[in-house]
Design a protein that fits this description.
2 domains; 24% helix; transmembrane helix; single chain; binds 2-acetamido-2-deoxy-beta-D-glucopyranose; 4-stranded mixed sheet; potassium
């Protein structure tokens, strides 16, 4: 009989016809719980929407809200070397350097004078091109300065379609990554690029550099400068037609049939290079090897 009573108790717990309780609660009690949760989740959703709205109001479409103040731009070279940063070819094998010339053709196409004249302004050189917003009034879209392909002279690919690769005097093009709001250089002194032999490790506590092998270098534009008029950069949305300035370096007498390790860096009195946090900041290194049959 005890068994029957137990069974009845369980059934009664689910639905008790006497007190009209379902799972121990009356309909109105269940209703109140349901209402409570509806109100509670509505409140949470409202809070989320409100927070998002307030946060989005503080965002500016044109400048990132947070940016590392000491951002040091990275540097990259073209033609794009593979992950190992090696440019290796044989003068006699056209197919071994033709791809480098083609890569440069493609990279420089937007710098064609005609393209630059169409989309960019002729700016006053040697000074920053300031286009600040006045308070909440956005001065957008902002203009950008022309960087004519012809500025790269012998490395422009216009007179010498192969950028010197076919005669063992290759051009390497260097650009500095964009950093919004950066004012490189100081006191009217533009930042410039220099390339030199890279010190590299050959054994424990043993270092070497290929200084004798690097030969004479020529920079385009002269002195390898990034003119001040290309700065500051205001961001992709504000400055839609921005063309990053370039520096080309031509290796006039590099030793052939040997690896030459090169490092190019930016020289600017306010861009730190290679600090502990980012060893690659402000510099780029690569290996150049030109093979000849004789
Ligand atoms: C850019 O100029 C080069 C050399 O003058 C030419 O071969 C190429 O077709 C031009 N490219 C564009 C996109 O205008
Ligand atoms: C760029 O080249 C075009 C045509 O060759 C020329 O009219 C323009 O002045 C040049 N711009 C600069 C900044 O030198
Ligand atoms: C960007 O370039 C296009 C032509 O390609 C030009 O019509 C437009 O005015 C330029 N915009 C700015 C902000 O310089
Ligand atoms: C290049 O640098 C030298 C020495 O610092 C200077 O005399 C010359 O005017 C510079 N040339 C250009 C085009 O900036
Ligand atoms: C080129 O470099 C070699 C040594 O690697 C040197 O003997 C030669 O004089 C250099 N030529 C020129 C034109 O500088």
């Amino acid at each position: 009989m005890a068994k029957d009573g137990e069974k009845g108790g369980w059934k009664e717990y689910i639905w008790n016809p006497r007190t009209r309780e379902f799972l121990g609660r009356t309909a109105s009690s269940w209703g109140l719980i349901f209402l409570f949760y509806v109100a509670f989740y509505t409140f949470l959703a409202g809070l989320f929407v409100l927070t998002m709205y307030v946060m989005l109001q503080t965002l500016d479409d044109h400048t990132p809200t947070r940016q590392d103040r000491l951002t040091t731009p990275g540097m990259v070279i073209r033609p794009k070397a593979d992950e190992t940063f090696e440019i290796v070819y044989s003068i006699q094998k056209t197919e071994s350097w033709d791809m480098y010339a083609q890569a440069l053709d493609k990279f420089l196409a937007p710098y064609n004078n005609t393209a630059q004249v169409q989309k960019n302004d002729e700016c006053t050189p040697d000074q920053y091109f300031l286009q600040e917003d006045s308070g909440d009034v956005k001065n957008n879209p902002k203009r950008s300065c022309q960087f004519n392909r012809t500025l790269l002279e012998e490395c422009s690919g216009i007179n010498d379609r192969y950028y010197g690769y076919q005669e063992g005097k290759p051009c390497i093009i260097i650009k500095m990554n964009r950093v919004i709001g950066m004012f490189p250089g100081k006191d009217g002194q533009a930042p410039f690029v220099t390339c030199a032999a890279k010190r590299y490790k050959v054994g424990k506590d043993e270092w070497r550099e290929d200084t004798e092998k690097i030969g004479e270098l020529r920079y385009f534009p002269p002195n390898g400068t990034f003119n001040l008029m290309y700065y500051p950069y205001y961001g992709k949305k504000a400055q839609v037609n921005y063309s990053q300035p370039l520096v080309a370096v031509k290796f006039l007498n590099i030793t052939t049939n040997e690896d030459v390790n090169i490092e190019c860096k930016i020289n600017s009195n306010n861009i730190p290079t290679g600090h502990e946090r980012d060893k690659f900041a402000g510099k780029v290194s690569f290996k150049l090897r030109i093979n000849t049959n004789n």
